[in-house]
């Protein structure tokens, strides 16, 4: 026996210690029989003890494998060795029973378990150990004599293919690409039209049987449709027909939804919406049919409702997760816990609702609206499949919606749509770089929160470098001319707007990076002071860049000559500075400044919220949280020293006098009318109002009692807004 890390752990199975008949010689290898040592160790070791060589370390233990542990040893003989062996042993019979009623019941159980396996796969498990743990799927041709099972397995097969293609194209898969790895599974394409025609014929056959059993023949007249029933018990016929129909129809329309939601040309969007509503209706029919299936006698015992993967509660036959274990990558097999049937229902309902949100998207060509839509969509915590289809909706063949090149998108952002036709513009080095950065940004925003934050931090440096280069190039070419000339040329106008927009976008990414830290619970309450302080600095810079760009857009369109024109331009500049979006961002600035100063005052006047230095100092935590921003120089000349100096003299009385929170309430009152047509903005305003009102009251209470009062208990809770905390004051 030769291993990389010599270790034998107590509590495991005892091996057959007889040496192999022949051990092939290796170059420079000296083989020794360790059977007696292993036998002695197995007899003497207690649970948790380990015999190891001198070169063994805890670091080496990280890559060690425990043999004969089914969670780690993929070569362990557990269950059937091959699919053929499982079939010969009767693990997946066709028909599922010679009793037609039992056969129907077992068929429905197979459908339900595959439904649960699919939800488990979507949540990040391996296809080979979830959906393709079904022996009927692994040997699809065996189901041909059973039309219902064959139709369901074939459409499931097609749906898996469609999902894998979409996830692969979007490249949003997680778990080290395991989601799209097929491990040599039989995933060949089938003609979609022929498949749906066959599925439709099976569905029509069951529908005729349902109509026949519902018909009420008068006296001895022959029924309108002379159709053989599905099974032998007339009282159960209608229930089984309905159970089969809703499952087959869900599979058909879910497959159609996936295919149409990728194709937005023509009627693709409206058809996808129609199919989504049908799928939701069929899921509700499946839920209604549950009691009928539970009330039937079963051969096998029932599982608990929480863990059962079928509506009936019976264990489905024809599944073995260990069959594909040896075909997986050379790593320990993952134990895939299949989600319950009720959880699978909830998952698909959530997925379909997320798809419906995508169908409601208006294909707004304005970049700001697109970014707001993606951020708003991510608030509903969509799973991997929904996020992948969101990306496919936004970016197709390197174009926005598959229609517009990104230099056209940038030209629209600059309010210069005609410049997009200029060959020199879309071939400009900076425009090409910004177009590529925009594509990367949209893809990043479609990933999960953890990946999104990490990748946003990395792309910040690229945006920062490009924006600095743009500003330097503008100052170098037009720095003197811009002061002496009343009118800017087109090239100067484009260059100025381009670098101002790049700076604004850079600070928007920085703000998103900081906000995601709250979603991921990366900040401790005693770190809120530095976080809100840094957020306030970033928001101030973002607000400044938005206002500068708005003024530049107005100034460059101003004509010389008439005084009325100049006054009109000044009015527009004032409107740009105090636009509703700028005022809402100003509320964010006040909230961050107010919360940072409240926390700083509590630290300075009392013992609350002082940073514990058990493992690292406050300076080290500052670097850990904001290192990626500091590398990108966002903002310039920001350091831990500037943070420390700004909060050093904070007092509760000073915060009360500044009255950040009352100023917020004044602004939000004037904003409600401006966002009357934007429900998500109104919700944001209401949340900000609630946070400001509660914090103003809490601050007054702290000021009256004194921050040094030992009976005062102050905490910060994210109960009314995902990023801005509410101050909670209690007395012990």
Automatic annotation (TrEMBL):
Cytoplasm keyword on record: yes
PANTHER family in the record: GLUCOSE REPRESSIBLE PROTEIN MAK10 (PTHR21373), N-ALPHA-ACETYLTRANSFERASE 35, NATC AUXILIARY SUBUNIT (PTHR21373:SF0)
One GO cellular component term: NatC complex
Family: Belongs to the MAK10 family.
Name of the protein this chain belongs to: N-alpha-acetyltransferase 35, NatC auxiliary subunit
Domain of life: Eukaryota
All residue ranges annotated as the NAA35-like TPR repeats domain in the record: 358-727
Compartmental location: Cytoplasm
Organism expressing this protein natively: Rhynchospora tenuis
Domain NAA35-like N-terminal: from-to ranges: 47-190
Keywords: Cytoplasm
One Pfam entry name: TPR_NAA35
Keyword check for Cytoplasm: yes
Coiled-coil ranges from the UniProt annotation: none
